[in-house]
Amino acid sequence: MDVILLKEVEKLGAEGVVVHVKPGFARNYLLPRGLAVAATPQQVRAVEEARRQRLQKSQRAQTDAEALKRTIEGRPLSLSLELGADGKAFGAVTAHDIVKALTRDGLAVEKHDLELAQPIKALGIFDVPIRLHPQVTATLKLHIVKA
Q1: Are residues 26 and 69 in the same domain?
Q2: Does 25 lie in the same domain as 48?
Q3: CB burial class (10 A; 0-12, 13-18, 19+) of residue 3?
Q4: Radius of gyration (Cα) for the chain, nearest Å?
Q5: Do 22 and 92 reside in the same domain of the chain?
Q6: Same domain assignment for residues 56 and 89
Q7: Which of 32, 61, 90 is the last residue of a domain?
Q8: Last residue of a domain, one of 14, 37, 61
Q9: Rounded Cα distance, 15 and 34, in Å
Q10: Alpha helices in the chain (DSSP H)
């Protein structure tokens, strides 16, 4: 029996793939759990159309991410950090501070997109990677200056 997988099934195939399985396996396991549907010509066309639309959407998102990457890498960001008399930092520059500054500049970036291992507690120039898309990562030049 041919079925179209609606979700990835281990040792069987990925989502959207047409596979041939025994009728009992399809009837008793795959179909009741919503993991697959019978491979009718209408279902095959619907799955192909959905796959094509997902691919177009992914390509548009990647193109937008690459444009945002060029913008981010083309303009450095400067943030201030308050220091005490002995040169130790009061607080730190966090991912939230960076996102807030980028938003003020008109760049839409989510906090979880920043790959900042720990808050920055020193003056200097730092490279902060920002994952905009699974295949696109921008590097932000962050200048930390004394307040």
Answers
A1: no
A2: yes
A3: buried
A4: 24
A5: no
A6: no
A7: 61
A8: 61
A9: 12
A10: 23-25, 41-74, 95-104
Per-residue pLDDT, 91: 85
138 burial via Cβ count (<10 Å: 0-12, 13-18, 19+): buried
Dig out the tokens for 57 from the structure: 């959407």
Burial 31-54, CB ≥16 within 10 A → b, else e: eeeebbbebeeebeeebeeeeeee
Residue 108 pLDDT: 87
The pair of structure tokens assigned to 84 is: 């005490």
Domain residues for the domain of 128 are 64-146
Number of domains the chain is built from: 2
In the block, tokens 């920055």 appear at 120
Longest dimension (CA), the chain: 77
Q: What string of pLDDT tens digits covers the 147 residues of the chain?
A: 999 999 999 999 988 889 999 999 999 999 999 999 999 999 989 888 988 998 999 999 999 999 999 999 999 999 998 888 787 888 899 999 999 999 998 988 999 999 998 999 889 999 999 999 999 999 999 999 988
Tokens of 55: 């691919």
